[in-house]
Amino acid sequence: MVWWPPAFPLMPETSKMIPTKKDFSAKARIRDMDEYKALYQRSVETPEAFWKEQAQSLTWMHPPDAVCDTSVPGEHNWFSGGRLNVAVNCVDRHAAATPDKTAIIWAKNEPGEYENITFAELKRNVGRVANVLRSLGVRKGDRVCIYMPMIPEAAYAMLACARIGAIHSVVFAGFSAEALRDRIVDAEAKVLFTANEGLRGGKKIELKRIVDDALDGMTMVESVLVARRTDADVPMKGGRDQWLDEAMAQQRAACPAEWMASEDPLFILYTSGSTGKPKGLVHSTAGYLLYTSLTHRYIFDAREDDVHFCAADVGWITGHSYIVYGPLCNGVTTVLFESTPLYPDASRYWKTADDIGATLFYTSPTALRALMREGDEPVKQGKRESIRVLGTVGEPINPEVWRWYHDVVGEERCPIVDTWWQTETGGILISPLPGATPLKPGSATLPFFGIKPLLVDANGNRIEGNDVSGLLCIEGSWPSQARTIWGDHQRFLNTYFTAFPGLYFTGDGCRRDEDGYYWITGRVDDVINVSGHRIGTAEIESALVSHDAVAEAAVVPKPHDIKGQGIHAFVVLTESSDLGADEVSGTLKQQVRHAIGAIATPEEVIAVDALPKTRSGKIMRRVLRKIIAGEAHQLGDLSTLADPTVVDQLLEKLK
Ligand code: PRX
To answer: What is the pLDDT of residues 323-355, one digit of tens each?
Structure first.
């Protein structure tokens, strides 16, 4: 079966690629392109045999009867008949083999403060939290919401859910009360984990107060477990709220693990789509765990003695897959980083890496852009000698930032893995393998084992060959593919599997260059990628129009030096609006913060008389995007515009 002409890259001598590092490759799991090609071909030509063999890395309570049934797109099924428990794989088996090994290094907000948790301790703490949940009546399949800062209790809570078969829904602790409430209601969570306060850089975040606002008047959540991160006393609602440490102290450490079916949901994670309602992507137990642990092993070339420092937050998919589940399943020490890259200054990552001996380092282009702006000196304050692999994720990385990461941070010694993937994919789909793949700054390079990317045009025609651009789709399934959208399977099918029948549509544009390397060019749908976080324009627009003064809103991205993209909003005010011209932007920015959270705050909110629309009334965001980006000379075809004078008014306004 030839689905993609195997036009593998030319060797580095004959192209402008950056060759692999000899010393690294000599010891790597996959040492050159021949090894990669051979294993890749096997993985796509005989997937059953490939995945059956890989599945042996997991500890099963009952082995699966079948590998995969992927005949109907969107109804994929992996490892049916198998029984296993994620917490047993991520904790128990390592607690038995290496009880004193550090499972988690908690790098606290204040520089130089660390706490190590061994696998034996992790097992006891997860067991206690699991027993707390059981004592509260949480059973297999129940939903538990986790709204916590980056503290070990967040990982305990996730793994405790996994242990008893409850489905967790981690909500990033930067979301507002309103956004938290929507996610709780959608998942019908009966228990919620939080902390009295969170610490991030110089800021305290009043998490319990936000939770109280979110739960105000709601009876769905029966119990709130509050971790004690600071000394702050917070109001505790009788019959509902308990301190987590006190509840844990009442429980035994031993907690039997549920035998979960391979396809039982492990978690729900909300992400933005092109409608106002966030989507709760559902991930499976066996396939998710297998794929995240396998990609972690190969893409980071992970070893037993590695210290995996992924600076993401557990509120996002990166934190789920490459802080908690992937590394711990592999028995690798993982890092929970509570702070920010700039606190107290731009040397923070590198000093932390030195302190804890980090060997694998994973961050976002946004963080790197912010750090690069601070110059090389803060980097030099850290030795960085322990680091072997540098990774990036979340958005396209500009080649000059890639170069800086490679030359200054990695001192040309460390391979860079630019990993492309999504909340929906569960794990990394396109990435270099650090010992094998010659690199090109800005390219995520080539597909991982078992992954069949292809490009299509807007009509769904496959675009063959190299040096072409199109919409990125994936053919077939892979184990960690999301299984559904919580409570709305039809939306799942409509969103991902109907645009191009038979294929999974990623929502990204992409170029396949002359060497067959993939370059992700960004979202082609109504999703803005701000600092590596996905935010739907529809969500922001609905937050804006929920203000009495706003009749209509349209939100578009504009390139931003640090964030990648910034959010720019246009609003048409109601006749009755009493907002003064100088109040519009501030008031409506606050409105968005309140409805969604600080991450969705627009850079500017501009009041206009009218929005550009088609004759059928559809807002032409393309026109706004061009105008805001200063590309008014390239507005393209305006023949469908209902009122062409609107464009002139807008240009006049933005002068
Ligand atoms: O547009 C792509 C971009 O981030 C989107 C997925 O966002 P999210 O589900 O929040 O997951 C982010 C962390 C996995 C993608 O559709 N993206 C992610 N990684 C890259 C990227 N764009 C370019 N290069 C990447 N390495």
So the answer is: 999 999 999 999 999 999 999 999 999 999 999
Identify the residue whose tokens are 């053919």.
475
Say which residue the tokens 């094998």 belong to. Answer: 436
Residues sharing a CB contact under 8 Å with residue 5, sequence separation 6 or more, in sequence order: 464, 465, 466, 516
Residue 8 has pLDDT above 60, yes or no: no
Residue 109 β-bridge partners: none
Residue 337 contacts residue 107 (beta carbons within 8 Å): yes
Q: What is the CATH number of domain 531-653?
A: 3.30.300.30
Cβ–Cβ < 8 Å for 455, 47: no
450-475 as b/e: b if 16+ CB within 10 A: bbbbbbbeeeeeeeeeeeeebbbbbb
337 pairs with which residues across the strands? Answer: 107
Domain boundaries, the chain: 531-653
C-alpha to C-alpha distance for 404 and 406, rounded to whole angstroms: 5
pLDDT for 633 equals 85
Predicted confidence (pLDDT) at residue 256 exceeds the cutoff of 80: yes
Q: Write the pLDDT tens digit of every residue in 84-113.
A: 999 999 999 999 999 999 999 999 999 999
- Give the residues across from 327 on adjacent strands: none
CB under 6 Å to ligand 1: residues?
271, 317-318, 393-396, 418-423, 444, 506-508, 520, 522-523, 529, 534
Q: How far is the CA of 227 from the centre of ligand 1 (A)?
A: 31
